[in-house]
Amino acid sequence: MSETVVTDLRPLAAVLVSAIAVVFIVASYRYPNVREGWSVLAALAKFAIVASMLPGVMNGTVYKWSFAEATGLDFVAGVDFALRADPLGMLFALLASFLWIFTSFYAAGYMRGLDEHAQTRFFAAFAASLSTAVGIAFASNLVTIFIFYELLSLVTYPLVAHNEDSEARIAGRKYLTYTFFGGGVFLLAGTVLVYWLTSSASGTDTATLEFQAGGIELLTEAAAADPAIAQAAFYLLIAGFGVKAAVMPLHSWLADAMVAPTPVSGLLHAVAVVKSGAFGVARVYLDVFGLEFPTAYPLSVPVVGDVPLNIPVAILAAFTLTAASIIALRKDHLKRRLAYSTTAQLSYIVLGLSMLHPIGVLGALLHIPAHAFGKLTLFFCAGAIHVETHTDYVSEMAGIGKRMPLTMSAFTLGAASMAGIPLLAGFVSKFYLLIGAASGAEVAVYGLEATWLWIFAASLIVSGVLNIAYLWPVVYTAFFESEDRHDAKPVFEFPAGGERKSYGVLEGERDHDVAPDGGPDDDVRKDRYAVDENPSDADVPFGPGSGGSTAAGETPVAANHDETGHEDNGNDHHDSAMNEPHEIHDDGHHDDHHHGGAPQGGWERRSALTFSESTWLMLMPITIIVTGAVTLGILPDYAVFLELADTIVAGVTGEGVL
Questions:
Q1: What is the pLDDT of residue 202?
Q2: Backbone φ and ψ of 269, nearest 5°
Q3: Which residue of 174, 230, 383, 460 shows the fewest CB atoms closer than 10 Å?
Q4: Phi-psi group of 454: left, alpha or beta (phi > 0 → left; psi -120 to 50 → alpha; rest → beta)
């Protein structure tokens, strides 16, 4: 499809609308309803502007705004500051702007439900974050995307450090260190190398950093003369974007950033921030170097021989999606389990792009919205559970499906989508990824590449099984266990994490008579954990164990409270390794009363039909987002994201997949 470039202000307007809203949000700090109203209006306006360009983009029109054309001035070193709405940028911008609408409602319900402090700052930073995210989507060249990429880290820092306690500040500093300094340095270095290569190839001092479907032509020419420099530029750019994509070993900031309020964890860490990294990797593969570059200029490895540049990236992605899934198995803290799930799911995108096969690329691009709808549902549900019950740990959720039936039903659908169950969004994207891996292996040029592609296909299957392993226990605990008879371990009935005392306990027995692996009680320490001395979440700045481990042989003191603040020392289904009078939850809520888990007498049963389990501000977004995951799975041919992904592939390869 031929491309027609049209000068238009709408890419700039899409970026500025939420930035302008920041001023009105701050000015309305005395009037919460007005303040949140500006957020919703800005979200609606942003989505309307982005959606208005969709028909033209689907028909081959690229809408562009240029600082040089608008002012007659150069931006920096002959590189223009420009925005363009092309199919790849539209995929990311449409997704982020659409989901912000419902996150605005959800954030209002969440922040009010917990009576959070600094709400004006929160909503202002949130709007600024969406402005920079759309700037990344519509960036026309490497310099422009670098600017917005760094700005995104800066404006999201107040959200990560929102709680203003030591844990939040530590997480915020780590977030900046990884994403702003680490990822930014890699990205800048790669951009400088591309600038040098293209300027030398042109024979003039003019460089070309403009994104082009299929790769920058001058960069391809320069690679023939300086392949080592081109290879270095490729890996630096991948590393720069890979930080926000949480590819191991650059991933640990993501789990620690879960200390932020759940709306932040949801939209920014399941959509905008992490997706900006995955989106950047897509830009590198599709619009900077092209799909042919990694095999045309392979690495020469002693003994092994020539290795295409994409293979090390794919190996790292396959390792990440497997290792992160295994780590998630041990996490009792729900948001932290979801964080490692995000680390794994993002690598599906990187792996699909690294396959270089059109079908695999299509699956990777489609997994961007598929993961966003599914994971945002899961985070929204986790936040609703926290607001209503102050429960954050899977081991405390036995029977919670009675109290929050609609929320946990939505969680079930979101989890099924993440696991790739048919008729849900995750299945469609993962199906294309698997077909892409198998098809790529059949037509691979290098024997090593074919071997690895079959290994990648196997890793996708294994990871899918692991997804079920760490998400199904949440559903099972909520709907199929009761408060007085349940297994408090995160997943398994053998030493893979979780409390020893829960397994095999029957009425009338002492709670430590049976070890978790069925072995003799003398071989284990009573009331301790199966893998390490502290709980599996003890290495985080919140949760059990954050106050220090107990000495050998000592039993942690449980502090149970019902929703009215009365102590409940009779229910031994809820144990905590802390005995603090004021627990600080991971969302920063200081609660002097109920500390999580079922209150005295068990959960109150509520009907899903009455919508009484939470406020409509939270239930409405949950319902709509999970409906999106179902729609994308049942009607993928009619979903705009699948058609957009196919248009992107067609622009790069010359023909679509569908």
A1: 60
A2: -105, 0
A3: 174
A4: alpha
**Collapsed DSSP state (helix, strand, coil) of residue 246:** coil
Give the strands of the sheet with 82-85, arranged side by side.
4-7, 61-66, 82-85
> Can the peptide bond before residue 473 be classed as cis, meaning omega within 30 degrees of 0?
no
DSSP letter for each residue of 394-455:
GGG-TTHHHH-HHHHHHHHHHHHHHTT-TTSHHHHHHHHHHHHHHHHHHH-SSHHHHHHHHH
Angle at alpha carbon of residue 453, lines to 447 and 457, rounded to 5°? 150
Residues shown for the chain: 658
* 367 touches 430 (CB < 8 A): yes
What is the rounded distance in angstroms from the CA atom of residue 198 to the CA atom of residue 220?
Answer: 9
- Amino acid occupying residue 439: S
Structure tokens given for 86? 């092309």
Tell me what the mean pLDDT of segment 540-550 comes to: 39
Q: What is the largest CA-CA distance in the chain?
A: 85
Closest CA to 336 of 480, 167, 486: 167
Q: What predicted TM-score, i.e. pTM, was given to this entire model?
A: 0.83
Separation between Cα atoms, residue 499 and residue 521, nearest integer Å = 14
pLDDT at 543 exceeding the cut of 70: no
Cα atoms in the 13 Å half-sphere on the side-chain side of 101:
15
Question: Does residue 545 carry a pLDDT above 70?
Answer: no
> Is residue 86 very low, low, confident or very high in pLDDT (cuts 50, 70, 90)?
very high
DSSP state of 309: T
Average pLDDT, the chain: 80
pLDDT of amino acid 607 = 78
Look up residue 273 and give its two tokens. Answer: 């921030």
Contact (Cβ atoms closer than 8 angstroms) between residue 297 and residue 242: no
Is the separation of the CB atoms in 483 and 573 below 8 Å?
A: yes
What is the Cα–Cα distance from 398 to 475, expressed in whole angstroms? 9
Strands 590-591 and 583-584: antiparallel
